[in-house]
Design goal:
Length: 285
């Protein structure tokens, strides 16, 4: 495959110019004086990608050798490219794009910023197989503080189906619908990532763990999750009712689950009171 050097140079330059130093963890820059133009400097991109500044300059000037797959991968990470942008970078550089073999567990910085900007709204992020990746402080009032638990033990579906068959969860219509929709979403991910060992292992485990999961799984329902209405009894503030909205993060195929209270409602006030409480002791939900 042939390198489109002019397009590669222009693409790298525009992606570099759109980033601010704070986007890549460089508060205010690297101490090299005032910036005459927006975006990162070439030297900063080269350092982030682990390559020489001379080599990177040649790429932006449409000169030099064809970049290797390793170099392209490093540039994609340094420039915080989306999945679509990374694919485009590889193609104009004359390489086949890397195959996405499984759900991404890499949290985009912008997603972390968004979580932290919602102190009065419980929110957390899961990957395509419902491993919890991140959460904000208020979410710990509902899912617990998971920081003390191994990463391998942070799967929402496993927690759901570890409940005994006589648990009140299984007699609540909204909770049951939420769970069934999650299983259908997992089946959709099972098709998007054929052969992914993580998803296959989770499905095998849950089939052996829960007859309820087995019934839902063998119904072959396939659907991408939508928002649902939830009613719960919270131990600290009593009954709550809110919309549980699921926002799809297309760049990583992750989901942000957000508990949305109606403005002026009792639930909104309860969220505010919960946010003011001391941090809970790390505990499993």
């Amino acid at each position: 495959m042939t390198v489109n050097r002019q397009e590669l140079a222009a693409f790298l330059r525009t992606r570099r110019e759109r980033l601010r130093p704070t986007d890549v963890g460089l508060p205010g820059g690297t101490g090299m004086g005032p910036r005459r133009t927006p975006g990162l400097r070439r030297q900063e991109v080269a350092e982030l990608a682990g390559m020489s500044i001379d080599y990177y300059i040649r790429l932006e000037q449409a000169r030099g050798p064809k970049p290797s797959r390793q170099v392209l991968g490093a540039l994609a990470r340094a420039l915080m490219l989306t999945i679509d942008e990374r694919e485009y970078l590889f193609r104009i550089a004359g390489e086949a794009p890397p195959v996405v073999v499984g759900p991404s567990s890499e949290l985009l910085p912008a997603v972390r910023y968004l979580l932290d900007s919602m102190p009065l709204t419980p929110a957390y992020v899961v990957d395509a197989k419902y491993d919890l990746l991140a959460w904000n402080p208020l979410a710990t009032r509902f899912i617990g503080d998971l920081s003390a638990h191994p990463v391998s033990d942070r799967n929402m579906l496993r927690w759901m189906f570890q409940r005994p068959v006589d648990d009140l969860h299984w007699s609540d219509e909204d909770a049951l619908g939420f769970t069934a929709a999650s299983v259908a979403d997992l089946r959709a991910a099972y098709a998007r990532y054929p052969g992914d060992p993580g998803i296959q292992a989770l499905v095998t485990e849950l089939l052996g763990l829960s007859p309820m999961f087995a019934r839902m799984w063998h119904s072959h329902d396939v659907v991408v999750r939508r928002g649902v209405r939830k009613r719960i009894e919270h131990p600290d503030v009593g009954p709550l009712e809110f919309e549980c909205q699921l926002l799809h993060i297309s760049d990583s195929d992750q989901r942000m689950i957000v508990y949305c209270a109606e403005p002026g409602s009792r639930t909104e006030d309860a969220f505010r009171r919960l946010a003011a409480l001391p941090a809970p002791v790390p505990a499993r939900p």
